């Protein structure tokens, strides 16, 4: 039985150019929030994902799998791997479009095990925009940027106002994106 992937994106989209203020290729990107489980520096046991702006409107991330990230003995937990992709894809949307967005749907295909001690190299890209919906996808490779593909993911993000984070969370919008001038 062959599996045919559904059309992606599933709707007609525009292919946006990166925002004029999007980071230049090679720019190292800091955490969007210090206490974020995915990219924050101040979360013990977090993923501590490191990202930079890539060429061809991509965001490149690295996630080093530690013993704290195990699911089965010696292997990364699938949920943490999905988290790494959610974080990378969220950064792809936020950094390249310079608009706040939240995850609406995330699909992850697990193609091979990711052992403790390995580094996952993830490249995220924008696939298109339809109104407030943003479609993005990513591929993760083991140990080197051209290593074997271990995971693929695609996601739907929904553009929101910064007020989303103050109405539904506790953060000042400046905590969520400290590099931007935001008037609450």
UniProtKB/TrEMBL annotation:
Subcellular location: Cell projection, Ruffle membrane; Cytoplasm; Membrane
Annotated family: Belongs to the THEM4/THEM5 thioesterase family.
Enzyme Commission (EC) number: 3.1.2.2
First and last residue of the signal peptide: none
Keyword match Kinase: no
Organism encoding this protein: Actinophytocola glycyrrhizae
Biased composition (Basic and acidic residues): 12-22
Entries under PANTHER family matching the protein: ACYL-COENZYME A THIOESTERASE THEM4 (PTHR12418:SF19)
Top EC class, one word: hydrolase
Chief subcellular location: membrane
Protein name: Acyl-coenzyme A thioesterase THEM4
InterPro entries per UniProt: HotDog_dom_sf, THEM4/THEM5_acyl-CoA_thioest, Thioestr_dom
Keyword entries, A-Z: Apoptosis, Cell membrane, Cell projection, Cytoplasm, Fatty acid metabolism, Hydrolase, Lipid metabolism, Membrane, Transit peptide
Protein's UniProt keywords contain Repressor: no
UniProt region (Disordered), positions on chain: 1-29
CDD domains reported in the protein's UniProt record: PaaI_thioesterase (cd03443)
Membrane topology, as annotated: Peripheral membrane protein
Reactions mediated catalytically: (9Z)-octadecenoyl-CoA + H2O = (9Z)-octadecenoate + CoA + H(+); tetradecanoyl-CoA + H2O = tetradecanoate + CoA + H(+); (5Z,8Z,11Z,14Z)-eicosatetraenoyl-CoA + H2O = (5Z,8Z,11Z,14Z)-eicosatetraenoate + CoA + H(+); decanoyl-CoA + H2O = decanoate + CoA + H(+)
Any one GO molecular function term: hydrolase activity
Thioesterase domain sequence ranges: 74-141
């Amino acid at each position: 039985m062959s599996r045919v992937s559904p059309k992606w994106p599933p709707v007609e989209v525009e292919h946006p150019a990166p925002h004029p203020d999007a980071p230049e290729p090679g720019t190292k990107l800091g955490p969007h929030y210090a206490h974020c489980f995915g990219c924050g520096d101040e979360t013990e046991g977090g993923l501590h994902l490191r990202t930079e702006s890539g060429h061809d409107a991509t965001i490149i991330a690295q996630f080093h799998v530690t013993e704290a990230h195990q699911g089965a003995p010696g292997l990364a937990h699938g949920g943490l791997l999905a988290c790494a992709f959610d974080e990378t894809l969220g950064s792809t949307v936020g950094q390249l479009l310079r608009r706040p967005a939240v995850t609406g749907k995330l699909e992850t295909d697990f193609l091979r095990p990711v052992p403790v001690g390995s580094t996952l190299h993830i490249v995220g890209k924008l696939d298109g925009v339809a109104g407030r919906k943003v479609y993005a996808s990513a591929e993760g490779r083991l140990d080197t940027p051209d290593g074997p593909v271990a995971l693929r993911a695609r996601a739907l993000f929904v553009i929101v106002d910064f007020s989303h984070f103050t109405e539904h969370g506790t953060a000042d919008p400046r905590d969520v994106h400290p590099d931007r001038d935001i008037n609450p």
